[in-house]
# Entry
Amino acid sequence: MSRLVDPLRIACGAATARLVWLCAALTGCSGGDGTSVDAPPGVFSLSSPSLANNAGFDPANTCDGADSSPELVFANNPVDAGSLAVILVDHSVQPAGLVHWVLYDIPPTATGLPAGVAAGYEPANVAGAHQSIGLNGDRQYHGPCPPALHTYSFDVYALPEPTLPGATMDTTKEDAAENITAHQGAHATLTGTYQH
# Structure
């Protein structure tokens, strides 16, 4: 019987290691101590110098500061992507979350977004990209400003098309977000929290 137990323990240990790697590869999940698990090489990922995954937003990127967008860094963009899109969502607003910001038609070779993406339908500091109508009827980033602790995510999506199908200057953030998720290929997530 002991000859059966040892191989089973070895097999279970190997399977557990594979599951941990798969979890990191697919979701960038957290380790047991709450720290972020780095995605394996070659996996599409999203990070920021001013926001660690599952950490608090820098006040500069919220209504308590300049309310400017953080720098975002893309890595290992899918080679078959036609364009990229970024969505910021407040997941603590139920039932479906509140879309704060949508930027789409980002060139597929972009390595990220600069800090402080400019306002406007065609932001001057992100060539080729378009911004949907936002929270206040304008076209610009609006960061966290909740009265209680809320959880947010930046999601970058790889889309097969070079431009978002059906999108125009009149496209709202909700319509753009729905369209993006309907056409998405790979995507990566960066999560943060904030309380005003």
The longest helix spans residues 2-27. The chain has two helices and nine strands. The chain has a mean pLDDT of 83.
